[in-house]
Amino acid sequence: MKHSLRRLLYTALLLGFGFGFFFLVKPDFTTNHSVRKEKVGKEHEQEKEKSNKRREEYFFRMLRNPATNSIPKNVRASELAYARHLMNWQQMNVRYSSSSTASVTNAYTWSQAGPYDVGGRTRALSIDINNSSHIVAGGASGGIWESKDAGQTWSLRNTANQNLSVTDVVQDPLNPQVWYYSSGEYDNSMSTPYKGTGIYKSTDNGDSWQVLSSTQVPSDTSYYSPYQYISKIAISPTTGTLFLASNNFGIYSSTDGGQSFTHLLGSSNDHNYTGLAVSKNGYILVALSADGFSSTPINAAGLYLSTDDGQTWKNITPSGFPSYFERTVIAFAPSQPNIAYTMTYDGSTTKSQSKITFYKLTFKGDTLYSADNRSANIPNYGGKVGQFNVQNNYNMVISVKPDNPDFVVIGATNLFRSKDGFSTKPTQDYGWIGGYDTANNISGYPGQHPDEHIAVFDPSNPNHVWLGSDGGVSYTSDITTTSTSGDPVNWISENHGYLVSQFYTISMKKDSTDNTLLGGAQDNGSPFFKASTNLSSTSLDVSSGDGIYAYLGTNYGYAGSDNGTVYRNKYDSNGDITISTPYTDVTPPNASNQLFVTPYTIDPKAENIMYYLAGDSLWRNTHVTGSSPKNYWYTVSKLKAPSQYVLSSLNVSHKPAHILYVGASTTNMQSTTDLPIVYRIENSDTSSTVINRGSSQFPAGAYISDIAVNPMDANKIMVIFSNYDVPSIFYSSDGGQTYTDVEGNLSGSSFVGTGPSVRAATIIPTKNDTYYLVGTSTGLYMTNSLNGSNTTWIKQANNNIGDAIVDGLASRTSDGRIAVASFGRGVFIGDLNNSTEALPVQKQVHLPSKFKLNQNYPNPFNPSTNISYSLPVTSKVTITIYNIMGRKVEELVSNTTKSSGSHFVTFHADDLASGTYFYRITAIPQSGNDARFTETKKMVLLK
User: What are the backbone dihedrals phi and psi of residue 402, each rounded to the nearest 5 degrees, phi first?
Assistant: First the structure.
């Protein structure tokens, strides 16, 4: 069996990685019209191709098993099986035991934080044939979502622990209550090898879903399944037969609603890509690609037609079809089902224009009557982003207007249309209707996002179209509009709570009263937003492309773009980054060999200092807040990683200040002996003294993805290795002189499944306890007791975060809050419950100057919410809850002495009915001349 390098990246590694780079700059908190044009993506199409390779290398290095130099074959199903095992054990212990399991499980309250106007990569989208306001869509790593009001609101319909990788969704035309979706993305940009775990079915019109047992993928990591990478699902409107196109396996059908499947065409390892479409009269057209492993495939590459429900097949490949080709997408004309269009990529791209073969096919019975090659009319408007670029099979879409067989929409990075089936090349002012803006200046098309994946015409109004792209879901009420200049089609973003954004990192401010968040997101730059449950809240993208690390400091917020560009953003008078506030590029001008997601940070005790990693070098800037920050970069000469190593992670201490830890990981993918290295730099604001704090215990060849430092004791650190099948979590209490493997129950089991890839960590000291948290490929875990191999990690937020990938964590000691960056489900917030208090407020730098009762968060809430308040002096505090009739419901705080500073308390309303409630604070100062403080606010319980 022969494998090309590219094929290794697509199947052996099973990674692919995102290809959308630029993107619409999001509105600020007060307007939805302004855009920060000057900061829109800086890369043109040719540069994107280079960056894609760096992305693949970055994630493969993070996830591979160093011993085999590969990703475990069926790791998603295997790690999910192990996550189920841990969850079952945890639930049993909470129910029947009074052990620490229960206390750790209940230490935090978790809630969704947003951003609510930022979508994510969407390959699956369908409109109910009986109700055009009912839309079902799927995020590539965010699950299946349903809107019953034409995109104004969305609801997640997966359970927390189902596979969240959705690649296609269809409704049964003969039984509209029945829907199916496929899981497992083949050409992807995900931070995990996200194979599918089967086909999911809904029998209640999309409200709930269950995996078909006939397609469920076992957890055995040696197993390949035809249900791991389903590229297309289709149902015959004449017979009700369900058809599946399985990449690498071929075509399957089911005549019993998915209880069993029959293999029809193709075979294992013969065709990497499989295309499929079914017409209104039941014709089935299939494409089997030529880029497979077998030199003698059972079925030759080409196009196949069946007119008898898949019983027999005829090869109808036109004579002008390429001899070698990869992915093909197919669409029948609904109004004339004997007409089909095919769009095929042959694997080559020149100056960002992909080589596309485009055919209009006409059938008479089971005979190909005519094949019109219209490839020459595929749009290419030149410039920076005017090409038709499918980015190695990543973004390809074709759709035909229901009432006009000549009105065809095709998509790649951009979206194009033709009113004559591309029998002629459309002019730019008519043909270019989405993706990048028609100005061809790397700005985004208004209301829409580059990298198109699916276009669906409304069955009740053929002028209405819904799109799925790397930016989520968008809609137009008229796909036919024209314009002599500018953008002819008006698109509206419909991501109102469609929470499938993919975050690498997250940050928040130190102040416990501040809900601001800033993170790095794939395809959507660096959203700056307020933690909220309000669907109408907005965000602002303060970088471009793929966001990287972020930092929210006292006076500035820092955000970056893929491959290392970093911006400094000043706050306005409200502490927000807005379009009107200026930004400064602070990237080290002479740095090179940055990682795709480039690590950098600000020194929390001296915010004029930034540390930045590039290749084997640590860069330091002691004037990053000054007027000319680019003039003050220099390398720390005594920290230079060995040959074939890269500096991959860093973190700097709070107490004592200025202790910097840096992780170094090998770039030699063939080595089985190169040990990761941890460097410790004391007095890092001025010193160049570097201490090697690596260990022979570290897994050879592994990648250091994070180093967590206890904010109250810089000698206490956690070193995280993100690879599969290696010990992933090491703890040191003496600054790295000695380490203990504390991976514990996250290590996996040969009898159950693979342990998760551990990505990030944070340490939260509180007044009562210290909590250790790790973000993994199967969600968020926490412990309050590190006990070597017996360490027990407890799943957090199972009903919120579930098994979503957690790539980044941020925390603060002022109130113990944790921010969680998930890859596919947006950002979550964790707040300490009543039983645990944050560290005493005197640890904070700034004390409040006046009494204040804040609005509860979240609001509306269900079933719990946090009430925060500020005291300028030590006071006796009472906080009481009343119903709308004025009757006391609960006394949360009863005449209790609280020190000056910021505090919060959690109100649990599990047993209360929905409605309006009031909360009142009374604070009696214990010193000074301050008068008694009383204030009342309103909140809403919405169940």
Answer: -60, -30
